[in-house]
């Protein structure tokens, strides 16, 4: 099944990708595309292959078959660092922050990798709560604040496509709404690929949604189409 959403000139396209861990295959012949400015939501029960998909796109897991193109370039054989330099950003489920460093030090460390130290202030405008925590150790932040910090660090890499794995997991409802609002803002500047268990958020912010099941795309379409499909809830049931 191919996700395209009716967009032309995709920013990222994957063709027949297969991947897994050792001899255990997790992804089976997945093809899809993400266009500039598009938010694509990936849904599915635990173990469906969602995180593996993001790790494969980032280059943390090697393909066993298929090709990946990004921004007009075949980067199937590139490593994670090279993909990041080309504009692929990734915030894992456990946001990558240095727990013993302060919020400010975390941001400066992220900025130094891309030469964007002057842009630290601009990313703080997205999540003003972090400005009041600049001198605080990241390890003392709440779960929601760590998610915000992880997103800000990724943004300092100037991504063309930002991939988010469960950005609202374990986050207070007020912060969930704040993140949802920021995603809509970010989509005016970049594409977003989001794996999310919060169905309400995913169906609200995404223009296109795919449901994974056992390493395949079982459903794909616009949120309203997916939500009304008779198999939708069955595919998400534990």
UniProtKB/TrEMBL annotation:
* Keyword hit for Transport: yes
GO MF terms, alphabetically ordered: ATP binding; ATP hydrolysis activity; branched-chain amino acid transmembrane transporter activity
The UniProt keywords, alphabetically, are: Amino-acid transport, ATP-binding, Nucleotide-binding, Transport
Tell me which InterPro entries the record gives: AAA+_ATPase (IPR003593), ABC_transporter-like_ATP-bd (IPR003439), ABC_transporter-like_CS (IPR017871), BCAA_Transport_ATP-bd_LivF (IPR052156), P-loop_NTPase (IPR027417)
Q: Does the keyword Ribosomal protein apply?
A: no
Question: What GO biological process terms are annotated to this protein in UniProt?
Answer: L-amino acid transport
* Purpose: Involved in beta-(1-->2)glucan export. Transmembrane domains (TMD) form a pore in the inner membrane and the ATP-binding domain (NBD) is responsible for energy generation.
- Tell me the PANTHER family matching this sequence: HIGH-AFFINITY BRANCHED-CHAIN AMINO ACID TRANSPORT ATP-BINDING PROTEIN LIVF
Tell me which family the UniProt entry assigns to this protein.
Answer: Belongs to the ABC transporter superfamily.
Q: Tell me what this protein is called.
A: ABC transporter ATP-binding protein
């Amino acid at each position: 099944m191919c996700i395209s959403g009716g967009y032309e000139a995709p920013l990222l396209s994957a063709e027949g990708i297969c991947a897994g861990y050792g001899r255990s295959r997790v992804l089976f012949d997945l093809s899809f595309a993400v266009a500039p400015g598009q938010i694509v939501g990936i849904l599915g029960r635990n173990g469906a292959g969602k995180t593996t998909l993001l790790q494969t796109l980032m280059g943390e897991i090697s393909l066993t078959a298929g090709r990946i193109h990004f921004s007009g370039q075949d980067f199937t054989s590139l490593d994670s660092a090279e993909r990041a330099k080309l504009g692929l950003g990734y915030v894992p489920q456990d946001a990558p922050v240095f727990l013993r460093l302060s919020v400010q030090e975390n941001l400066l460390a992220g900025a130094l990798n891309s030469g964007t130290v002057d842009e630290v202030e601009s990313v703080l405008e997205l999540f003003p709560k972090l400005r009041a925590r600049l001198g605080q150790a990241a390890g003392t932040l709440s779960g929601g604040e760590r998610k915000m910090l992880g997103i800000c660090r990724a943004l300092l890499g100037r991504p063309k496509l930002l991939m988010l794995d469960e950005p609202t997991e374990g986050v207070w409802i007020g912060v969930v709404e704040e993140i949802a609002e920021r995603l809509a803002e970010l989509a005016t500047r970049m594409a977003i690929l989001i794996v999310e268990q919060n169905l309400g958020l995913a169906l609200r912010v995404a223009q296109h949604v795919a449901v994974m099941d056992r390493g395949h795309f079982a459903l794909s379409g616009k949120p309203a189409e997916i939500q009304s499909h008779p198999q939708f809830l069955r595919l998400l049931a534990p």
